[in-house]
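To close the section, here is one more complete example, presented without commentary so you can practise reading it yourself. The ligand is NDP.
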Amino acid sequence: VHRNPGEGEFHQAVREVLDSVAPALDKHPEYADAKIIERICEPERQIIFRVPWEDDSGEVHINRGFRVEFNSALGPYKGGLRFHPSVYLGIVKFLGFEQVFKNALTGMPIGGGKGGSDFDPKGRSDREVMRFCQSFMTELYRHLGEHTDVPAGDIGVGAREIGYLFGQYKRITNRYESGVLTGKGLGYGGAQVRREATGYGAVFFAEEMLRAVGDSFDGKRVVVSGSGNVAIYAIEKVHQLGGVVVACSDSSGYVLDDKGIDLDLLKDLKEVRRARIASYVATRPHATFVPGRSVWEVPCEVAVPSATQNEISAADADALIQGGCKIVVEGANMPTSPAAIRAFEQAGVRFAPGKAANAGGVAASALEMQQNASRDSWTFEYSEQRLHAIMRDIHDRCHATAEEYGVPGNYVAGANIDGFRRVAEAMLAHGLI
Ligand code: NDP
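Output:
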């Protein structure tokens, strides 16, 4: 804590991982001898830079850009960029740290990193977003490369932003290096199912958790928070598997629709019109918009938090438990506060941490890199099959590792230990670097 003052989210993420990997350290004294813990908690490189840009009225703005290249033991740094006013070093480091273990869990050759800016794209015109992205990439490009560091999207960074970032990278370097960014448009090197992958993947993971106890999504009442990229495709997959998502949200409140969220309407609002969730009820008058309240007050059997960190407080967890929730699957990164995780454990609610459950996004990114490297493109069906197999595999390994360590059903321990072991073994093999 004294080494990284004021980085609350980073401390929270490190504490959670260290709490669960202690038994692995007992089994492997060689990790302690090589100071793996000290090294794994220290990013390999951290870049902070100025991003000046001009808005449509000619006013100059200065934002701060970040890229934390956390660990490259398993492959090039890989992880998204987040554009949101709350972004500061502590958030980028927590996300980068989580990313290291998540990427290891996918079994694919990718290291971990994360970046972003405190820029707020909300309410900005396309041209303003483009100018910001160009300025951001004008510094970042020198640190990137398909074998070095490969960013993707996250909160506030979707297909539009990736397009502008890729265009500027190409222009500055004079290289058509498709594998330098993932989440690209389908027309220029993007991969099928990347857009859907995080949401679909989280629901595939939940399906495996249900299957492990002889259950399924059929007829299940589900709540998904957020209404961005992860939330929309989580809702789509739940509906395909026979569940009903009755509520979703944005930072202004939530909508409750007992007939099931109308996905075409939601996509139109969020992907095309970039509107607020409140406007959902204008076309679905039987639905209600509840401003300023937490979506977790809506009773459900399965909860898929897909908005942001620490969005489920201890009080929200109690409300979910009272409402009959049996499974919580993190679509977002660290959406569940430590007190809420403890409450779920005590109440016997099965809980899947984001680093396992939302790994589908980065796994599909690794598949995009694979297609770019071989100048190939796969069909939607084949790409979805690959994603599905990866999510099943992650589930089964978390499950098996939890059993191996005497904590059956504890997906947090299973995910942390399995991811940690993979990174630690590679670091040992590479010597003291
Ligand atoms: P988007 O920007 O597409 O959507 C974010 C959604 O969350 C929006 O509905 C937004 O509402 C809401 N939200 C954001 N911040 C807050 C807040 N402080 N309070 C309440 N609601 C908030 O982002 P993504 O869907 O891509 O990402 C969501 C989560 O999933 C993040 O934790 C991200 O790190 C994680 N994730 C994303 C992956 C991906 O592939 N995209 C991969 C793995 C994890 P509003 O518009 O009002 O801000």
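Once you have examined the tokens, check your reading against these statements. The radius of gyration is 21 Å. The first helix runs from residue 8 to 27.
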